[in-house]
UniProtKB/TrEMBL annotation, chain A:
Transmembrane segment boundaries: 17-37, 63-85, 92-108, 114-137, 149-169, 189-210, 241-264, 276-303, 315-334
Keyword Hydrolase applies: no
Keyword flag Ubl conjugation: no
Keywords: Cell membrane, Membrane, Transmembrane, Transmembrane helix
GO terms for cellular component: plasma membrane
GO molecular function, a single term: transmembrane transporter activity
Organism: Gluconacetobacter takamatsuzukensis
Localization terms from the record: Cell membrane
Protein name: ABC transporter permease
CDD domains registered for this protein in UniProt: TM_PBP1_transp_TpRbsC_like
Membrane topology term: Multi-pass membrane protein
């Protein structure tokens, strides 16, 4: 009798979930150990984190506000992943969406029921425009989209800062380095939580249906799995790549629209708060499934929210970042380990 | 339906509050029950702006040993700032002090927490429970500008700024006006690097200014990068926040130094006693902001001439008097008029002779 490890070709969702839960517990255990070693009371901190995130209305409101952009940027990166494309530029498209929405909000007077949809439409169009060149270059010239989408993030971030301190600068209320307050806002439904949250949820659910239950979604999956085979089967692979990337840009831009019209109400540098990059993390956790974006974004939102609680308990921002990294690192290892199971090989009976 | 619920245009209120305009008198708090929270814009170890505020926090701890203080450093200028201030309130803080401008991010929280006292450094709004404070750093910059005007050989000053916002306009304008008061041929070239703390960008900006012929660098940075540039190139530099002469003893001229210790102790004492009221407050030259003792390469007669103006300002003289033209040549302050602190605090145009900000 000898023990060995067997690699499973596919992992059932239940098995992966169990491994991931183990990973989170391990990461938290390591964190607890370090907190205890540095002379803090981990139980007190854990109690505070739970109370200030999921244990109070105040924490739940913040969680929903974090979730809104994370759901959309996570979905943006996930949909391109299904066709084998990495959109690293959600941050830039987020800014483009915020810029587009602000342009309409600041300079188009009108009733909110008219202006808000126009802001969203223009924001989404700007986000699509922001990814258009990388998308065309990827679909028709084979240019690596990882580099092109990433580099445009810096352009979008600086453009936002330029607009906020330059041509659109607020000279009325004396706010520093930001535009004037938008005259319209997305109405709140629950405390500080605005309509962007249920809309983002609905969008993700709609995408889950679109990617798994429609002919278009099927073509995306096949094109991502084997481009040659898809082409041979008569699918328009390039058009699909273009379509998915534009959709992705629009989704990230919608996150920017919600952030500026629902939460911040002014355009300013730093607005995106790294939500575009966290969207990549959410997509990696979601493993290509739009439905999985929901729990993945929830975990990310919880970590970010817990980070703020821990900072007010005098943990440095770097320590919080380290805890985030540890959790994700453990999950990555767990995802791989879930493929293995111990088996016992019986010695073959000899005649 | 979305639109009907959207509320009044331009309303900053999240829910109606009757006492918005009137200052609220907050009841006294026992020292042992009090929690005072500070939100900082950069790490407390930045060696500049936030370190100066942290010294104030330590002075509060020393003056009120039983009081609890918490701080969060590197508070981002995004909706995360609102979350952090909300968290302070949720933890029961009676006073929240933000050591940098967070605008609506703090106002959104203060309007919802009328029983908590809020103070915002470089803030511009006063509400029922939110006030602001700031240092009148332009007088120190003016004094340093006099030294710059007397020390420059090329008549070109360089300025490393962050964003074109009033405190940067006031800093650059004050240096140039001070320099021109003794040397009318001086000009000032500014570069904005979109950050308060970015040593690499500040080094590049300082080098570019030196290449352009500037032989005196100044600016508003939290760290000493452009002082090192000046030291290497054998030119002069004036700094901000703290004494930074150790990073360039030959180049160091002076610094706009900050001291919030007494002010923070007074602020917390007033809140504990129940006498705190929301107001806008300037810390004046010699009481929270000053020029640093002059560097060792500053000629004594130049130091004396600049210090004569410092003494005059501390006696009540305002050197910001017309005629002052803007960079486009328009007369903005007529002869015989003075710019008071409230006007300088809103300064959003560059004076004639300053380039690179508009």
């Amino acid at each position: 009798m000898a023990g060995t490890l067997q690699r499973l070709p596919t992992v059932t969702p239940g098995r992966r979930l169990a491994w991931r839960a183990g990973a989170v517990v391990t990461a938290l255990a390591i964190t607890t150990l370090f907190l205890a070693l540095s002379g803090r009371d981990p139980r007190l901190l854990a109690d505070l984190v739970v109370r200030s995130t999921v244990g109070s209305r105040f924490g739940l409101e913040d969680l929903a506000l974090f979730l809104t952009p994370l759901l959309l940027t996570g979905a943006a990166v996930t949909v391109t992943g299904r066709i084998g494309v990495w959109n690293i530029g959600a941050e830039g498209q987020f800014y483009a969406g915020a810029i587009g929405a602000t342009a309409v909000g600041l300079y188009l007077p009108g009733p909110a029921w008219l202006v808000l949809p126009l802001m969203a439409a223009n924001g989404i169009a700007c986000g699509m425009g922001w990814i258009l060149v990388p998308a065309l270059a990827r679909a028709y010239a084979g240019v690596n989209e990882i580099i092109t989408t990433l580099l445009l993030n810096f352009v979008a971030g600086l453009l936002t800062t330029y607009l906020a301190v330059g041509p659109w600068h607020d000279r009325v209320t004396g706010a520093l380095a930001s535009t004037g307050r938008l005259p319209v806002r997305i109405p709140e439904i629950w405390g500080v939580v605005h309509w962007g949250f249920p809309i983002a949820l609905a969008v993700v659910l709609g995408l889950a249906w679109l990617t798994t239950r429609t002919r278009w979604g099927y073509q995306i999956t096949i094109s991502g799995a084997n481009e040659q085979a898809a082409r041979y089967a008569g699918m328009k692979v390039r058009a699909r790549i273009l379509g998915v990337m534009l959709l992705s840009g629009g989704l990230a831009a919608l996150a920017g629209v919600f952030e500026v019209a629902g939460t911040v109400h002014r355009l300013q540098g730093g607005l995106a708060n790294n939500f575009g990059y966290f969207g990549i993390v959410v997509a990696v956790l979601a493993r290509g499934s739009c439905l999985n974006v929901l729990p993945a974004a929830l975990l990310m939102a919880f970590i970010l929210n817990a980070g703020i609680v821990l900072q007010t308990e005098q943990l440095t921002a770097s320590a919080v970042l380290a805890i985030t990294g540890l959790v994700l690192f453990m999950i990555a290892i767990a995802d791989e380990l879930a493929h293995y199971r111990p088996v016992t090989i019986r010695a073959e009976a000899r005649p | 339906m979305l639109g009907l619920a959207a509320g009044a245009a331009g309303s900053g209120l999240l829910r109606p509050l009757g006492l918005r305009a009137q200052p609220r008198i907050l009841p006294p708090v026992a020292e042992a029950d009090a929690l005072v929270a500070f939100g900082h814009t950069s790490p407390v170890t930045d060696g500049g702006w936030t370190m100066a505020h942290d010294q104030g926090v330590q002075a509060v701890r020393k003056a009120f040993p039983r009081l609890r203080t918490v701080f969060v450093e590197s508070v981002p200028y995004s909706a995360d700032a609102t979350r952090i201030f909300r968290q302070f309130v949720a933890e029961g803080a009676q006073m929240v002090i933000s050591t940098s401008n967070y605008g609506d991010f703090i106002r959104d929280v203060s309007d919802r927490a009328p029983e908590v006292a809020f103070m915002e450094c470089d803030g511009h709004a006063v509400s029922g429970n939110l006030g602001w404070y700031y240092i009148t750093h332009w007088y120190a910059s003016y004094v340093i500008g006099i030294a710059a005007g007397l020390m420059t050989r090329t008549n070109k000053l360089g300025f490393v700024g962050s964003f074109p916002i009033p405190s940067v306009y006031a800093g650059a304008n004050a240096v140039l006006l001070g320099a021109r008061s003794v040397n009318p041929a001086v000009t000032l070239q500014a570069i904005s690097i979109n950050a308060w703390f970015d040593p690499q960008a500040a080094t590049q900006a300082g080098t570019a200014l030196a290449e352009n012929g500037c032989d005196f660098l100044c600016g508003i940075m939290d760290e000493p990068a452009y002082l090192r540039v000046a030291e290497q190139r054998g030119i002069k530099a004036a700094m901000w926040n703290t004494d930074m002469r150790q990073y360039g003893p030959e180049a160091y001229v002076s610094s706009v130094t900050l001291d919030f210790r007494d002010y923070y102790v007074d602020l917390v004492r007033a809140r504990l006693a129940g006498t705190w009221q929301p107001e806008g407050r300037f810390l004046t030259l010699g009481c929270g902001v000053d020029r640093d003792p002059w560097g060792r390469t500053v000629p004594p007669e130049i130091a004396a001439q600049a210090d004569a103006m410092r003494t005059q300002i501390m006696a009540g003289y305002n050197p910001f008097r017309g005629p002052i033209h803007d960079a486009a040549g328009r007369l903005r302050v007529a002869a015989g008029e003075v710019m008071d602190d409230a006007l300088i605090y809103q300064w959003d145009w560059a004076v004639a002779g300053v380039t690179g900000l508009d």
